[in-house]
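Tutorial, part two.
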Amino acid sequence: MKSTIFDFYNNKCRHIGSNLFLNQLLNYDNNILDGIHGYMHWIFPLRKPSNKYGGPILSNEELIEFKSNKQLRKAFLQSFNRFLDYFGFTWKKIDSKIIIVTSTNANDRFNIWLYQNSLHFNSITRILQSLMLLGFHNLANKFYLALSDLYEKHQKEIGKKRYVYWTQAVKNKDYWDSST
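Running the prediction step on this input gives:
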């Protein structure tokens, strides 16, 4: 199947806004990523059009392939892990359970993106939606729990409206799957 998003995930197609391949984006320093726009719409695809940056829209066939293709899933998880770091989170194993917690660089990262009306809140919503859509429900819920902890400490900066978006992204299928 010919697919722009699959070509992007296989480093055969460049993100239009930056002219970069996925592996280049993932290897960039956080400070450089802060100056590039629109790549989140490519790295975390959805079935609905993006409002500004025109990322690929997943078709039914692409969604099925994303859910079953181990190579695509592995690449997606690598992307997710990279952006956990970008936002100041990491994995931690406690009693054989994996959880998502703030990382050692969290305060530095929060100083970059955690402020009132930050556009990064939209990116987080998109990541949650994409995780749910692609069948990574457990990861979406773990990330949501970490974000909920963050919200408890930074309600003023995040705001109730954004937190509701994050909640809808993991709790309401209609919010992340526009085909229903």
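The beta strands are 89-94, 97-102. In part three we will examine how such features are distributed along the chain.
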